[in-house]
């Protein structure tokens, strides 16, 4: 069987290969850093390498590496052992050899796995040398090998439940990473090579290829998502023809995540890519880009797992506002639309993002949204008076909502905006401030409330006094109405006590 298998390889340059050996044996080692880092290796002597490679070849099976896969030129040869015209054919032969995919859930085919890994390392080094001229057959072979190794459907038990909502969840690592990392490294060097003509490569790095790359962002392995992030960003930069398609496809991923599944592992990485993409948008912004903000980014505040990607989301929105400050009103109205009413932890995050947005808001845009905004802030100031908490939250988190809302007055720019519009804003939040000041049980909230009242008094003491009178008058009216209702109920109870209900007499109860 072994002789029949070897007889299928051409004998060309074989004697030279035996004399020189192969510089990439089984003793090579690759670090597990993010894709694009240098590959570290240790080389053994020529004699030991030849012996190791010979042992591997003897243990190879034609069932694992069929002759049809490696036809053309012997893939075990080193690039330095063939002439320059033959290097293209050897590159394709090695790429075809690496199209064989192994199952890493068992220990079978260990020698073949090592051979494939050493071949991948050799390919990465050869592409990184910059001496490769990527003609169309080579491009097709690279894309084919990449697709066979990377594009796969994750089994149901591979994904974490809830899309990684818990920060304490241990990430799942793919057992095939020793091969996958090298394939990703090769793909990255292929995409970023100056010898790659994007006009020729777009026939193979097409929409289907990009779409399958995007599907891999749902991987549970954070190392794989990090590699994908770098590669997709390079594809977006090099293949201008694919940019609208990539934006549309990513939008569809966001839509499906927000409105259907609320499960996806790669939202943070996709947002990180778009953070730099948005910063490159030309001015004035196209209507398509504004729609991406309103329909794809802002709704990402809706899922309960927003805390896992809020930092990247906030950065993307900040890039939009830096490009066009007039979008502030759309963003804040979107925040108010998705404002949490049952999760105090999420509300604290919203208040933090709101402060960042207001810090970059000018007076004209602030005046467009200040009424609905401070109605919501007034509600947050009194959240602990009426809002319950979830089973995993403690009651003190409700006080953190009020405390975080009061921290807005520590920002000088926000205070300046409020001061210029105090006649509109003070009536919206004064009742909440007064309720807190009358005796909130949390000392921190009480102190912050008194400081905010003092700031308003320093801005316009007459205005504060007038609203204090109105508040006291309304409180007196409410107290009188409450006492009146109490008296009425007492009278009804007295009358009912003298006329007891007997038998099946119907009783009319008014609420």
From TrEMBL:
**Where, per UniProt, does this protein localize?**
Cytoplasm
Region Disordered, annotated ranges: 1-52
GO molecular function annotations of the record: protein phosphatase regulator activity
Residue spans of biased composition, Low complexity class: 20-52
**GO cellular component terms?**
cytoplasm; protein phosphatase type 2A complex
Query: What single Pfam family name could you report for this chain, choosing any that match?
Result: B56
Which keywords, in A-to-Z order, does the entry hold?
Answer: Cytoplasm
Q: Which InterPro entries match?
A: ARM-like, ARM-type_fold, PP2A_B56
Q: What does this protein do?
A: The B regulatory subunit might modulate substrate selectivity and catalytic activity, and also might direct the localization of the catalytic enzyme to a particular subcellular compartment.
Q: Which family does it belong to?
A: Belongs to the phosphatase 2A regulatory subunit B56 family.
Q: Please state what the protein is called.
A: Serine/threonine protein phosphatase 2A regulatory subunit
């Amino acid at each position: 069987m072994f002789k029949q298998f070897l007889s299928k390889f051409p004998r060309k340059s074989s004697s030279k290969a035996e004399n020189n050996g192969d510089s990439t044996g089984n003793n090579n080692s690759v670090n597990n850093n993010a894709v694009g880092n240098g590959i570290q290796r240790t080389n053994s002597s020529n004699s030991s390498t030849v012996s190791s490679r010979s042992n591997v070849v003897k243990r190879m099976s034609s069932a694992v590496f069929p002759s049809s896969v490696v036809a053309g030129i012997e893939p075990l040869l080193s690039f330095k052992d063939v002439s320059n015209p033959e290097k293209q054919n050897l590159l394709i032969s090695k790429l075809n050899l690496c199209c064989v995919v192994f199952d890493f859930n068992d220990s079978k085919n260990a020698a073949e796995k090592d051979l494939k890994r050493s071949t991948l390392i050799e390919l990465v080094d050869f592409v990184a040398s910059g001496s490769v001229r990527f003609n169309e057959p080579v491009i097709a072979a690279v894309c084919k090998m990449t697709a066979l190794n990377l594009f796969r459907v994750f089994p149901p038990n591979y994904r974490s439940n809830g899309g990684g909502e818990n920060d304490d969840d241990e990430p799942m690592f793919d057992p095939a990473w020793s091969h996958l990392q090298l394939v990703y490294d090769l793909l990255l060097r292929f995409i970023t090579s100056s010898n790659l003509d994007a006009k020729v490569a777009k026939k193979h790095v097409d929409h289907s290829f990009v779409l399958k790359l995007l599907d891999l962002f749902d991987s549970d392995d954070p190392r794989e998502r990090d590699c994908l992030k770098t590669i997709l960003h390079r594809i977006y930069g090099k293949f201008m023809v694919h940019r609208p398609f990539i934006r549309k496809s990513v939008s569809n991923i966001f839509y499906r995540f927000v409105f259907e599944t609320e499960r996806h592992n790669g939202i943070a990485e996709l947002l990180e890519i778009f953070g730099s993409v948005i910063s490159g948008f030309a001015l004035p912004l196209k209507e398509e880009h504004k729609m991406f903000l309103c329909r794809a980014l802002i709704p990402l505040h809706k899922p309960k797992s927003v805390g896992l990607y809020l930092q990247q989301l906030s950065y993307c929105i900040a890039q939009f506002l830096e490009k066009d400050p007039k979008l502030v009103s759309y963003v804040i109205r979107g925040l108010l639309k998705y404002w949490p009413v049952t999760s105090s932890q999420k509300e604290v995050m919203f208040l933090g993002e709101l402060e960042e947005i207001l810090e970059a808001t000018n007076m004209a845009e602030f005046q467009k949204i200040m009424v609905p905004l401070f109605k919501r802030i007034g509600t947050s100031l009194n959240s602990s008076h009426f809002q319950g908490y979830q089973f995993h939250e403690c009651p003190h988190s409700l006080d953190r909502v009020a405390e975080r809302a009061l921290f807005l007055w520590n920002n000088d720019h926000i205070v300046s905006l409020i001061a210029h519009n105090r006649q509109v804003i003070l009536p919206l939040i004064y009742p909440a401030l007064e309720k807190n000041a009358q005796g909130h049980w949390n000392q921190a909230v009480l102190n912050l409330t008194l400081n905010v009242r003092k700031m308003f008094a320093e801005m316009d003491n007459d205005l504060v006094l007038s609203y204090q009178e109105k508040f006291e008058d309304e409180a007196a009216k409410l107290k009188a109405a409450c006492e009146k209702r109490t008296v009425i109920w007492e009278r009804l109870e007295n009358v009912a006590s003298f006329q007891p209900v007997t038998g099946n007499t119907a009783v009319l109860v008014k609420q």
